[in-house]
Amino acid sequence: MALGDLEREVMTQLWDSAEPLTVRQVHEGLSRDRDLAYTTVMTVLDRLAKKGVVVQQKADRAYRYTPAQTREEMTASVMLDALTASPDQDAALAYFVGRLPPSALAAAIEAAKKR
Amino acid sequence: MTALLLGALGLTLSLVVPGILANADWPDRAPAAAVFLWQAITLAGVLCALGVVLAAPEELTRTSDKPFGAAALVAALVVAAVIVLRLLWSLYGVSKRSRVRRERHRLLVDLLDRVEQRQELGADNVRVLQGALPLAYCVPGREARVVLSDGVLQVLDRPEIDAVLAHEQTHLRHRHEVVMESFTAFYRAVPRPLRSRAPLDAVHLLLEMVADDAASRRTGPGPLRAALERLSDAVPLAEGVAADPKGDARRRRMARLAVSHTRSVGLNAVVTAAALGLLVLPTVILVVPWLGEALDKWPLR
Questions:
Q1: How confident is the model at residue A65, as a pLDDT?
Q2: ipTM > 0.85, yes or no
Q3: Do B102 and A93 touch (CB under 8 A)?
Q4: Which chain A residue has the Cα nearest residue B132?
Q5: Per-residue pLDDT averaged across B76-96, rounded?
Q6: Cβ atoms B80, A74 nearer than 8 A
Q7: Do A91 and B184 touch (CB under 8 A)?
Q8: Structural domain total, chain A
Q9: Residues B36-46 pLDDT 10s
Q10: Mutate to test the interface with A, among B137, B210, B212 (most CBs of A within 10 A)
């Protein structure tokens, strides 16, 4: 399995869980229907923590991991980033529909959440 | 005399021509050639500025004594170097910022991807975000992504989605981000009072048209038109604020998709020739005679 897929599945586990998970818990969740090394899961969690999308907490002598943002928060911030791209700063992303002015953004995202 | 002519040409290219070109209708019929023309205008403008800087001191001091001429020459070389370095530095900054931002963005869309919703879309660089806000865009780079929100999947039917995907894949395949990055870098390198957004906005729109053309060749103009219409309508806007103030960009894209598509070969050829001429002619007409004359009298020989 590609690393990207594994990272995504680890995140999904963390998002779906009500509380922070240990490496063992994530490993158990993922290795139910496949063969997966414990250390691989540990490495993936470590990488995600380094990238700042996962937060590592130490409790009862074990590390627990929790997402830095909920799925909804992260989706909203990705969309905000996509919509605020202004070509006079950088030219990071290209669009199908035109850019939105910042003032319209909050309204757009609010409206999208309500539906 | 050469410096004066180069200066006049440079000012015309940077102050007069962009305004005319940005308001013209004909670039819509040959968008790719028009992008090339914008590049030629910008580059020729820079070359004129460099030409003025190098030619003026030499021309002004031609009659005076050697040490003064030498000092003028050194000063001219320094100014020219500053112009070139400023452009390169700006390009470095813009591409680095863009790359960092894209990498972060790609990481997040990969993590948020709703795999089950895109199984049937085919391409493996497509990612689907959860959310009713209809969004379709691409994240260029070494591992490029096309991102759709499930708002898009709900609002559009399959041929329309294919048209949107074809449009975005064209941006990626043709490396449009490199063109935008260079124009952004140029914009930011120009001192503030002289800056103009006209080239930036015009080229942005023209690249959208290039991608529209490629998509419409693939799926026909119908689905693309419908997709454009639905996506722009579906984005809820705050009252009194429009994504594109005059509605101009969208109107122009729609208008050219409405007429039956005949590629204007003649116009393309003329525009391309004009762009080439702009790059070559000033150099040949103005600089070569000056260079011959200057080399004879250059003080540092």
A1: 94
A2: no
A3: yes
A4: A112
A5: 93
A6: no
A7: yes
A8: 2
A9: 999 999 999 99
A10: B137
